[in-house]
Structure formats: C-alpha cells, structure tokens
Specification:
The complex is a heterotrimer of chains A (about 700), B (about 180) and C (about 425).
Chain A lengths: L5 H7 L4 E6 L2 E6 L4 H7 L23 E4 L6 E2 L9 E4 L3 H16 L15 H9 L16 E2 L4 E3 L9 H9 L6 E3 L6 E3 L12 H5 L5 E3 L12 E6 L8 E7 L2 E6 L15 H5 L14 E3 L6 E3 L2 H19 L4 E5 L5 H15 L4 E3 L6 H5 L8 H5 L3 E5 L3 H4 L1 H14 L2 E6 L11 E4 L5 H9 L3 H8 L3 H13 L2 E7 L5 H14 L4 E7 L6 H6 L9 H7 L6 E5 L4 H6 L9 E6 L11 E4 L8 E4 L4 E5 L12 H11 L10 H11 L18 E2 L10
Parallel strand pairs in A: 1-5, 16-17, 16-23, 18-19, 18-21, 19-20, 21-22, 23-24, 24-25
Antiparallel strand pairs in A: 1-2, 3-4, 3-5, 6-7, 7-10, 8-9, 11-12, 12-13, 14-15, 14-25, 26-27, 27-28
Helix pairs in contact in A: 8-21, 9-21, 9-22, 14-15, 14-17
Chain B lengths: L2 H4 L19 H11 L9 H12 L4 H10 L4 H8 L13 E6 L2 H5 L2 H12 L12 E6 L11 E3 L2 E3 L4 H11 L1
Helix pairs in contact in B: 4-5
Chain C lengths: L1 E4 L18 H6 L4 H9 L2 H10 L12 H6 L9 E7 L8 H8 L1 H15 L1 E8 L4 H16 L15 E6 L9 H8 L23 E5 H13 L1 H7 L7 E8 L5 E6 L5 H8 L9 E5 L8 E2 L12 H6 L8 E6 L4 H15 L5 H21 L4 H12 L7 H15 L1 H7 L6
Parallel strand pairs in C: 1-7, 2-3, 2-5, 3-4, 6-10
Antiparallel strand pairs in C: 6-7, 8-9, 8-10
Helix pairs in contact in C: 2-6, 2-9, 3-6, 5-6, 6-9, 9-10, 13-14, 13-16, 14-15, 15-16
Classes of the chains: A alpha/beta (about 700), B alpha+beta (about 180), C alpha/beta (about 425).
The complex binds flavin mononucleotide, iron/sulfur cluster (SF4) and FE2/S2 (inorganic) cluster.
Chain lengths: ~700, ~180, ~425
C-alpha cells in the first residue's frame, strides 16, 4: 500500500545505481533508495501499517521485518536505506512467523466487529488478516475495552480498533501543521485523542482518510452505507483551483461520501482532501435543488414550472427579438469558473459564433488574462512544489483557499528543506514554515512584484513598509537559489504586476535553476474558463452590470453573479429586458430571472476542469442528473439548436472536448482517453511568450 | 457546522478549554523562570513546570494545563500527550498524602503484601482509591530504588524504608 | 543496610561513610576536584579519552559499552554544541547504587561530568534524575551551587578558560526514560519514546547535537581513573572490564546493601554466603537475578560450587548478565512463577507503547500470568508464554521488549517445576 508514491523515492536519489540482492535475485537500484520501496517496486510484497510515504518514519508496527545478511536481528525494511551489495531476504519461515505474530499482536485487543464497522471491506487490517489466512485465535483473554466517541461532528472514533500506526497524528502535524490529534497514555493504554476528547482543528478529515482501520471514521457517513454497496467514481474536486482527485461514492443516485483512499484514486493529492472537498458534497442531493425549468411570464410575476421545450423555445424567441431590436452586442453571455471547460467552451461558441456578441465574460473576479498573455515560463505542478528549493508566496492564503498547495509547501519545507518566502499584508499561518516574511503594507503586493523584478529598492521599500535590507536578503536568496524556484501569487495582483511576474522566468532562470509560476485563483476551473476564451470578451461582470438597461438588454448566465457584484449594482438586473440563468439552486440572481434552467452539478456531468497547475483533469458523472437538471453545455447546445445552429456534439461531452482540442491551441491533441489515468495528469501547453521589454 | 469548528488554533495559543488560565505568585513564577533558563529550547522545561503546577494546584487541572500551554507556547494537545505518558503526573485529583507502595520484586518478597494490607485496612480503602476526606490516596507503584531497604513506600516525595506495621502506624499517625 | 567495599580498597565508595560527605568541604579535604584540576591544567581532551580507554571502563548503566570508545565517537569537528547527559534514571528493579552515590557524594558526580565535558568540549550538561528521586535533585542542586561558588563549575573553571555548566533535570515516572534515546526525547519535553538508532546520540542526540549519555556510576569512576591513571584503574579489575563495580544487593540475604567489588571478584557463592552473610532465617538459596530484573534468572545450583566470577564474562559464562548490578537474592519460599509474573507486570506497566510486540506482547503475557495465577492455568500455557516471548524478543523497537522476554524464558527453562505446579502438569 502507498508505496506507489515514487516521488519520494526519486527525491533523495543520486543517479549512480547500486546493486542489491533480494531473495537471491540481483537488482540495480538508485543509491539512497529505501528498502521497503525497492522490494515492493520489484514485486516482493512487504506488509506494513506505520510506513507512509513522505511522512516521518515510525518503525513501530514492526510488520515490515526482513532479514539482511550479516545483521543479527530482523530489520524493519521501512528504515533501511539500500547499500551496495546488500543481500536481503523477504520471504522465509522466520520472517513469516515474525510478521504473522505482529499481526496476531495487533489483533489481540482488536474487537471482532468488522460486520458493523464502517471500514469493513476497505480495512487494511482486515485485508492483511484475510491474506495471511488461518490465524488461529490464540488470544483467549479479556480484550481491553475503550468506548466509542465522537471527536467532532466530522470525526467518529473507536479507540479500541486502533493499531497505533500514528498515520493520523503525523498527517495532522506534517500535512496540516495543526498537531490537533496526538497519542496520549502509555503502553497498552496508549490512545489516540485530544485533551478533553474534543478535536479542535480545521476538520480536514485527513486523519480519517489515512486510518488503516475503523478507528477514525467519517462522522457524517457513519453507518450510512457499506463500501461495497457504493459505486466509486473518480472525479475532480469542485471547491478550489488545486483540483484534487477524489472518489465519489454513490448509491441509488445519491452521493454518500467523497474520499481519496488510494485503493480508489491516486491523484496529485494522494490521500489528501480538505474539509470542503471531503465533507462539502451534501449540496448535490439537497432537497432545494431546482426541480424543473422555470419561466416568469411577466416582470414581477412568479417563476412558474415549465417543460424543457417551453423554456428553451421561450428563451430562443426572446433572444431573437432582443437581437433584432437592439443588436447582438446587447446580449451579454456570462460563463463561470465553477463549471466545466466543456460548458464554458460551448457558451463561448454560443456568444461569439451564434449570437455574435462581444460582450461575454465569466463570474471570475480575478482575470488571469494578462498573466497568460505574457507567460514567460511553465506553470509549477504540485509535485514541483513539493520538491522546490525556493518558494516565493506573494499575497494569497493557500492554506485556506488552496489547501493542497498549502500542504505541498509545508512538506517542501519540512521534508525537502525548501526555503519559503512569504510576502503578505497579513501574517498567514504558513509563517511557521517561512524562512523570511515580508510583512508588507496592505495593497502593496504590486510593489512587491516590482521589487522582485529588481526595480529601485528605496522607493519600493518605502511603499512596502519594509526594511531595504529585507529586500536585499530576498534578492540574495533568489540569486543563490539552485533547483526549482516557484513564484506563487494570490488574487491581489493588478494586470501590470501580473505581467511583470509572468515574465520573471525569462529574467531569472539560470543554469541549475528553473523558475516556475503558480497562480492561486479561487475556483476549480478559473484557469479553464480563461483557456476557453470566456475571459476575452469586451467587458467584465462589473462593466456588464453597469451597462444593464443601456447597452446590455439581456443576459444569459451560467451560474450566478457574485453576491458582492450584485451588492455594488443593486438594481442592475431589474433593468434588463430578459435574464436567463442556469443554476442548481434559487439565488439572488435567479430572483431577477425570466427563465431558469436547472443545471446539473459536477457529480452529475462528464467534462474537464483545468487546475492551477494547468493540469486538465476529468470530471466524471457519478450519478444521473438530479431532478430534471441537465449539464450546462447541453442546455446551451439545445438553445443553439432551437436558434437554428447545430453545434453537432450529439449529446456527448467527449465530442465537445475534441472540439476544444482543435480550437484551443493549449489543448491541442488532447482526448478523454489520454486523460484517463488520474495518476499521470496532463498539463495544458500554455504558449510561452518570449522576453518582453 | 458551527464556525468555531472550522477555525484553526494558531500553535502559539492554547485552545479554549474553559476560559480560566491559572496564575501563580511571583515566587513561583521566578522558580518557573529559573527552570526555563536551563534549556536552549523552552519545551524542555515541560516536566519541571508540570511538577510545579501540580504541587500548586494538586493536579494538572484545566487552568493549570492552559497555563502550561501558554507559558511554553505549545498546544493543549502537546501538554496532554506528555502529561498522560508519565506516571507521576496527575490529570485527576489525588489525596493530599499520596502513599505509593512499591510492589516490585524485592519489596514484594520482603513483605510488601503485609504492608499494603495494613495500610489499606487502616485507611479503609483499596489500592488506587482515595479516602472520602480526600486526605489519603494509596497506589501500588513499580520499583522506587529502595530494594535494599524493602519494604518501602513513598508519600509525596518522601521515602519511608525498612517498613514494619508498627512503623507504618507511627507514620500514618504523624500525618493524621 | 551495608555500604562498602569487599575484596578491595573502597574507591567510588571512598567518601560515602564520612561525616557530611556531601559537602564541598569534606569532598575537597579528601582529594576532591584534584582530578579536574589535573585534567584542566595538564591534559588535552584526547589525553583524557585515551586515559579512559586504557582504564577499560565499561558503562555501568546496563549495556556495558566501553566508555572511552563511546566518547571517541563524538565528532570533534562538529560545529554544533555538544552535551554530556548523566543518566540518573535508575529504575531497573533491584538497582539502587546511583542513589547512594548521589545522596552521599554529589561532588564526585559533578567532577566526573566536568571531566567528561572537557574531554568532549561540552558547555552544557544535564543530570536526568528519575522524578521519584526528588530529594536527590535537591541535593545535587545544593552541591552544584556550592561548586559554582567555589569556582569548580560555570565560567572559567579553576581559573582556566574552560567553562561548562551542569543542570539537574527531573523525570516524571517512566522506566523507559532510562533508555538513552528515550531519555533524550524526555529531556526535550516530548513523550519518553525511544528513537531510531542510527543516528546514535554521540552523533545526533540532544537537540540533534552530539551527546554522550553515561550512567552515574560510570561518570563517578572517571575522577579516580584520572588520578590513579587508566592502567592502574584497569588493573583493579580484569583485562576486559577494569576497575570496581557497585552491586545493589536486595532480597533474602542477611545483609543487603551497596557493595563495591573489584571486577572479576571470586566468587558469587562466597559473595552471597559470606559477604552478604548468607540467607535469612536459615532458609536455603533458591534463585538469583544478578544484574537487575532484565537479565536471566539463575538457579542456586548454577552458583553453589560453580565458582562464578563476578564480571561480564564470568556471569555470561554462568548463564546470565552483569546488567546494572541489581543483585536480587531469593530463598526457597519464593515461587518463581510468582516472581516472574511480578516482573512481567512491571514491563507491561513500563512499556512505552510505541511498538507492537512490546505493547501488545507484555499486555498479553500479563493476562496469561493472571489467568494462570487465578487457577485458570492450562498445560499449553507454558508453550504460549515461550512463543509470545519469542515473538517479542529481537523484534521490538528498543531493548525493553527483550528485557521483558528474557526473565520469562529463563524462568520457565530453569524453574519448570514452579510453572508446572500452576499449569497442572503440562509438558515443559
Ligand atoms: C529499557 C532500558 C532501561 C534503561 N534504564 C537505564 C537506567 O535506568 N539507568 C542507566 O544508567 N541506564 C539505563 N539503560 C541503559 C542506557 O540505555 C544507556 O545504555 C546507558 O545510560 C549508557 O550509559 P553507560 O554507557 O554509562 O552505561 C537502560 C536501557 C534500556 C534499554
Ligand atoms: S520495545 Fe517498543 S514499546 Fe517497548 S519500550 Fe521499546 S519502543 Fe516502547
Ligand atoms: S512499516 Fe516498518 S515498522 Fe511499520
């Protein structure tokens, strides 16, 4: 288990190979390789519980024992770094007895309640017990009893099932930097828990995920279903731009849980998910989901349920009329960074090719257009982040807004010895990891970027409100840096600053130093919505709302306007002649809508999201569309058909994606089959602009 | 889910375990400082400080734990994991006089059972219990390093060795 | 209780019986801090290490590792600070020698530590004392204050430019914190879990800096080694293990106590029967645990007339180990099944819980012992106990697992009758 994270192995290894003999077969392995990884890599099964790639070594479960020639005792292969000429035995009577007995010890006080345990069917302890078979029950004594309890509404805990592999306490510390759950007590009375039994943390639930037994369980899913009843669908998380891969467990059209257990999915996030990705799924089957298309026949009237045909026909008629009366630019089309590339792509075609309006945009406050138009280097993947030598974080709060990026940064510093430089107006929690913190004046992020680009210190330093020497240190760190230097930036940067930053690779890259970029936009498809050209229209949402009632007479929007956009333009939407909304729920935007189409959520559609690495990842349908909802692009395509244009996608998302692959250069050559393996994600080829002066 | 569940406690301050944080006299604070001064790393002082808090407050009660977390800028959980590992640190109250009778081999074969029986009879409690007036707690503990003067027990930090039932009576009387 | 030397001039116990032996004054009057002066004024750190190597001093904490060699593992060139840590956790059942050394001759320990500190270039040193020994910590603190005032400790010791500090630190009740890496975890304010070796403390110990951990008795031997010279010290003992050794004698002997014997003292029978004045109230000797609870138990007939030499090799040859020198004597009234149960309960209580075999194994062993003791014994239980021990031994993270297994293995092997009684005539 888990050894399939080869990144850890490759990380410390120098090129020169050495020879080790395993079960009298010789192998060439890279110097510095870890024995347990090598054995598994070469197909020799080694049982283990406490070993977990890229977490601190524990060597406590003692399952991974092997014999190494000329060493008196059996050795734990998880702690052994291969040396040249090492001779190893992983299978022998002696070793099998040792491993069996460890398992027997672990089972001694373990309750025999697999039938009622939520982990039953996907429990590493249970599986290993089955694998070994005929473990006669020699333990006939009283088992130590510990009561079940809830550590929080999210985390249910049955301490008696614990085998003390301490994966939970380590991910809590090393991934999340929270250290909220620990081992207390001593000896046979050791128990995983917290002071007063209350788990005070971000509730990410990663402790649940990595638990090999039924000790830590999803409190929201407790006793809801058995794993084997669930259909597991690999998909991409819809909550932030990191694009974690997860497995949606569904039963009878209902999403029961979202997990990242490596038995189901092996994405860029490993088994990591944050609270949103793991526990945020109940909206999918929420009873408030729109049930049918709705039409408001006269302004001020009520939204009245209608059939799809009525609704589509109604919209087509009105758009035609407004087009005829006020011209095509009077129709605004608004996409969304929350919906698939396919949806945004079809919407853009609809805007540019069918309606022929210049006024299209998306509900994305932070346009990366200037960044991508001047992109001077590659986007960093999350793996690049983990093995970076230097990370510069300008603005942003990854731990809150892009939690996986936050975790990668922490591990890069903790396990990889990376230097983290935080440039922020507020002291974010990642400071604990930072080698340098520039506490800059609010709103001076732009100036910080200029400072990086090397413009005059004094003025900049004053503007930033930091010592000139601090900037000097920063500069030195960067000029000395070897390996990968990664610049990350949050949504604070203006267009000008984006351009400068996008160009840094052109000016800073050097021998032995790659310079990579990592934007931190908010939404799961912020990059995709840009790639699909949805951000290239003549106005942004603000301008469009300003123009409502004058230049803009009708708007067709997928999703809803940002609440604060509407707040800034209170009665804009009421000035429209016609508003069409594609939504999951009634919102402050549908309140003004003349027609509302019930849209399908990410769990109900096929498609792709593009994450902040530029990785194009699959979204897969795990349940049929809820109620009468349809996927966004289908609705748009039907509307187009009603208006007399057949986009010719034959109701298949893959057809839409092929169209994307032909029309969007960065996606050329991509096909769904190429995106099948979530463990080898493919990066869109964003054009690299040469040096600009 | 309520907001306070999702917020992350910065490492530098304790989570809220009841708002009360213990406070100590300047003299005690000075003693605490003298311990902190011994180590390049603050956390090293955790055991000495726990003993001080324990002797001031009887046991490591929530305000005491909150104090330790604050003083050492650790998380409450860090205090908990350490406090529960060591057998001399109490997270529950104990009697004012904690009679710890050594039950390990040398004492055992030199008459510990008789002593234990006598002590328990006199106090009317079993090992592990505390008298109703909260005055005495009796525990059986592992080797205290007095095997040459067995049987023995420790009350608080004081050693009482070469015990006989008569001696036990004198000692208990002097405490009564 | 007896304290003194047998078969040699008292060396480490030279002062313990004097009036106010723990005061600086008495210590000075009896040659105290002269070794330190000699070291600081006439010897280089390497000279000191060489001298200790010559002395054939072996660690008295239990492992018996050659002290000079351990010191020489500390990387001279390391830019990191170095630490000397005195292991005064003395928790091995049957062991109480360190206690009397600290109680009655605290300055000897301070001097020993400072000499070690000089040899290793340590500016800060700690004495990790088990929490139960609070009164010893107070005594040490007093002595340290005295030494500081007298210019023997702190800045510019004895007017030389060598400066080094010694601090006391308290444990809080955990036998495992006597294991050197667990001790260091504890000293860093963590749970007292052992750490992976390698890296060994000498390379990466306290705060990941080079650290030497030595037992009290080991460090208190150093000043005499310096004074009399390594060779002379070695000659007091045997070639492989030099000097004298303190034995903590407890149990059914007429005269328990702390005995200083030359290494290689002849022989164990004489020691028990004459020096310790034999077994109480005319009873017969039944069993001896010579080196603290963790070593193999010996039968009387492995000792009587067997001429067992009391040093590392001699006792190994006789089927046990020197360990910490916790010498527990048991007469015929003792039921070895009961005594073994008692020790197993100790190891269960003290298992730190880190690794599977020790945590679950000791718990299981105790449950079997309890069942058997309550009359639920079955013939196959002897085999069960032995197999559980075999599954723990050599597979645990630290040696405590082995320490829990050995007493049981040796007891069942050497006292089958005591087990058979309880296991209703099972095969043994
Ligand atoms: C479970 C266990 C308990 C130990 N307890 C002690 C102890 O109480 N005192 C001690 O000096 N050494 C103890 N040791 C030995 C130490 O690990 C270490 O070897 C010793 O302190 C080194 O000092 P020395 O070389 O002077 O003997 C123990 C070892 C183990 C495995
Ligand atoms: S053997 Fe394992 S459980 Fe026992 S004390 Fe050592 S590390 Fe802890
Ligand atoms: S995997 Fe090696 S000891 Fe647990």
């Amino acid at each position: 288990m888990l050894s399939n994270d080869t990144s850890v192995r490759t990380s410390f290894m120098s090129a020169e190979p050495i020879t080790v003999t395993i079960n009298s077969r010789e192998f060439e392995v890279p110097k510095g390789a870890r024995l347990i990884d090598v054995c598994r890599d070469k197909g020799f099964d080694i049982p283990s519980f406490c070993y977990y790639a890229d977490l601190a070594l524990q060597a406590s479960c003692r399952m991974c024992l092997v014999r190494i020639d000329k060493v008196p005792k059996l050795q734990t292969s998880c702690t052994i770094i291969c040396t040249d000429g090492m001779v190893v035995t992983t299978q022998s009577e002696e070793i099998e007895k040792a491993q069996r007995s460890m398992l027997e010890f672990l089972l001694a006080n373990h309750p025999l309640d697999c039938p009622v345990c939520d982990r039953g069917g996907e429990c590493e302890l249970q599986e290993m017990t089955f694998d070994w078979g005929n473990l006669e029950e020699r333990f006939t004594e009283q088992k130590n009893y510990q009561p079940e309890r809830f550590l929080s509404p999210m985390v249910a805990n049955d301490p008696q099932r614990c085998i003390l592999c301490k994966r939970c306490t380590r991910v809590c510390d090393e991934w999340m930097g929270e250290d909220a759950i620990e081992a207390g007590g001593r000896g046979a009375h050791t128990v995983i828990g917290t002071y007063g039994g209350w788990l005070d943390c971000s509730q990410c639930g990663n402790c649940i995920e990595v638990c090999p037994t039924g000790t830590l369980l999803d409190g929201t899913y407790r006793h809801q279903a058995r794993p084997w009843e669930l259909a597991q669908t690999i998909s991409t998380c819809t909550y932030c731009s990191d694009g974690c891969q997860s497995s949606i467990g569904s039963r009878a059209g209902e999403v029961m849980r979202v997990v990242a257990r490596d038995r189901y999915v092996n994405g860029l996030n490993g088994e990591f998910l944050c609270i949103k990705g793991r526990f945020g799924h109940p909206f999918v089957n929420h009873e408030k989901r729109l049930r049918t298309p709705l039409i408001r026949y006269r302004k001020g009237g009520k939204l009245i349920p209608a059939t799809w045909d009525e609704a589509i026909r109604h919209v087509a008629k009105r758009l035609d009329a407004i087009d005829a009366e006020h011209g095509s630019n009077s129709i605004g089309i608004v996409g969304s960074p929350r919906i698939t590339n396919e949806a945004n792509f079809v919407l853009r075609k609809f805007a540019t090719e069918l309606v022929g309006t210049q006024n299209y945009t998306a509900t994305e406050a932070f346009s990366l257009r200037p960044f991508f138009e001047n992109l001077g280097g590659q986007l960093a993947t999350h793996k690049d982040i983990r093995y970076a030598s230097t990370i510069v974080l300008i603005g942003g709060e990854p731990e809150e807004l892009q939690p996986l990026t936050g975790k990668q940064i922490r591990q890069a510093v903790r396990n990889g010895g990376a230097k983290l430089i935080v440039i922020n107006a507020v002291p974010i929690r990642l400071l604990e990891q930072a080698a340098q913190f520039l506490h800059i004046a609010p709103g001076s992020e732009d100036a910080a970027v200029l400072a990086l680009a090397g413009s005059d210190d004094d003025g900049v330093a004053r503007k930033l409100g930091v010592e000139r020497s601090a900037l000097q240190t920063l500069r030195e760190t960067l000029s000395d840096a070897q390996g990968d230097v990664i610049f990350m930036f949050g949504g604070e940067l203006t267009a000008e600053a984006q351009i400068v930053l996008a160009q840094l690779p052109q000016t800073m890259a050097a021998d032995g130093r790659r310079v990579l970029l990592h934007p931190l936009p908010l939404y799961n498809n912020s990059i995709g919505v840009h790639d699909m050209g949805m951000m290239s229209g003549a106005m942004n949402t603000g301008q469009m709302l300003d123009a409502c009632g004058q230049d803009i007479r009708a708007i067709y929007i997928a999703g809803s306007f940002q609440p604060n956009d509407l707040h800034l333009h209170p009665d804009a939407l009421s000035k429209l002649d016609f508003l069409v909304v594609q939504e999951l729920f009634e919102t402050s935007t549908t309140a003004f809508a003349d027609v509302v189409f019930p849209a399908a959520s990410f769990a109900e559609v096929d498609g792709t999201f593009t994450n902040n690495d530029g990785l194009v990842q699959r979204v897969r349908q795990s349940i049929p569309p809820v109620n009468q909802s349809k996927s966004d692009w289908m609705i748009t395509a039907q509307l187009a058909a009603e208006l007399g244009v057949d986009f010719g996608f034959q109701l298949s998302a893959s057809a839409v994606f092929s169209a994307i692959a032909t029309e969007v250069p960065a996606y050329s050559g991509l096909r769904y089959p190429l995106l099948k393996d979530e463990s080898n994600p493919i990066q869109a080829k964003h054009a690299i602009a040469g040096r600009r002066d | 889910m309520s907001a306070d569940l999702t917020k992350i406690q910065p490492r530098s301050q304790p989570v809220n375990i009841g708002s009360e944080v213990a406070s100590f006299s300047p003299a005690v604070e000075a003693e605490i400082d003298s311990h902190l001064a011994k180590y390049p790393v603050m956390r090293s002082a955790i055991l000495p400080l726990m003993f001080i808090v324990q002797s001031e407050r009887g046991y490591l009660d929530p305000p005491g734990v909150a104090y330790l977390a604050k003083r050492l800028s650790l998380r409450i959980t860090d205090i908990w994991e350490v406090a529960t590992f060591y057998s001399m640190l109490y997270t529950e109250p104990v009697g004012r006089h904690h009679i710890q009778i050594c039950k390990t081999l040398s004492c055992k074969i030199m008459g510990e059972p008789g002593i234990t029986e006598h002590v328990c009879k006199r106090l009317g409690i079993k090992p592990g219990e505390t008298t109703s007036d909260g005055k005495f707690t009796v525990s059986l503990v592992e080797c205290l390093g007095s095997c040459g003067t067995a049987p023995m027990f420790q009350i608080g930090f004081d050693y009482y060795e070469d015990l006989t039932t008569e001696k036990v009576d004198q000692i208990l009387n002097s405490l009564a | 209780m007896f304290i003194g030397a047998i078969g040699c001039e008292p060396l480490q116990l030279r002062r313990v019986l004097l009036e106010n032996s723990r005061t600086l004054d008495v210590y000075r009057k009896n040659g105290g801090y002269e070794a330190l002066r000699k070291v600081l004024t006439t010897m280089s750190p390497d000279d000191v290490i060489a001298e200790v190597k010559k002395s054939a001093l072996r660690g008295r904490g239990g492992a018996g590792f050659p002290t000079g060699m351990k010191w020489s593992f500390v990387p001279k060139d390391s830019p990191k600070p170095k630490y000397v840590v005195c292991n005064a956790d003395e928790s091995e059942p049957g062991t109480f020698k360190d206690r009397y050394l600290m109680e009655r001759d605290p300055h000897l320990l301070i001097e020993g530590m400072l000499i070690a500190a000089y040899a290793l270039g340590a500016k800060t040193n700690y004495i990790y004392t088990r929490g139960e020994y609070r009164y010893l910590i107070d005594i040490m603190d007093e002595a340290l204050a005295e030494a500081r005032a007298g210019g023997f400790l702190g800045e510019k010791i004895l007017g030389t430019d060598f400066s080094s500090e010694v601090y006391t630190h308290t444990g809080a009740g955990a036998y495992i914190c006597g294991e050197e890496t667990a001790l260091l975890s504890s000293l860093e304010g963590m749970r007292g879990h052992p750490r992976m070796k390698p890296p060994f403390p000498a390379v990466s110990g306290l705060y990941a800096c080079p650290t030497v951990v030595n037992n009290v008795e080991t460090l208190t031997a150093v000043p005499d080694i310096i004074t009399m010279g390594g060779e002379a010290y070695q000659k007091l003992g045997t070639e492989k293990s030099g000097g004298t050794k303190l034995w903590s004698v407890s149990g059914h002997v007429k005269r328990p106590g702390v005995y200083e014997l030359p290494m290689g003292y002849d022989d164990m029978e004489k020691f028990i029967m004459d020096d310790c004045q034999g077994i109480r109230d005319g009873k017969k000797l039944k069993a001896v645990i010579p080196g603290g609870s963790s070593v193999y138990i010996m039968r009387a007939d492995d000792i009587i007339g067997k001429d067992v030499r009391m040093d590392y090799e001699g006792i190994v040859a006789a089927g046990s180990m020197v360990g910490s020198g916790g010498f527990i004597v048991m007469d015929e009234t003792v039921d070895v099944f009961e005594s073994t149960k008692n020790l197993t309960e100790f190891y269960k209580h003290e298992s730190c819980g880190w690794c599977t075999p020790c945590r679950e194994g000791t718990d299981w062993l105790v449950k079997v012992f309890k069942r058997v003791a309550n009359g639920g014994g079955r013939p196959e239980d002897a085999q069960l106990l032995l197999d559980l021990c075999d599954n723990i031994e050599g597979k645990s993270f630290c040696p405590l697992g082995d320490a829990a297994a050995w007493p049981i293995q040796s007891a069942i092997k050497r006292f089958p009758e005591d087990f058979r009684k309880h296991l209703v005539e099972g095969p043994l």
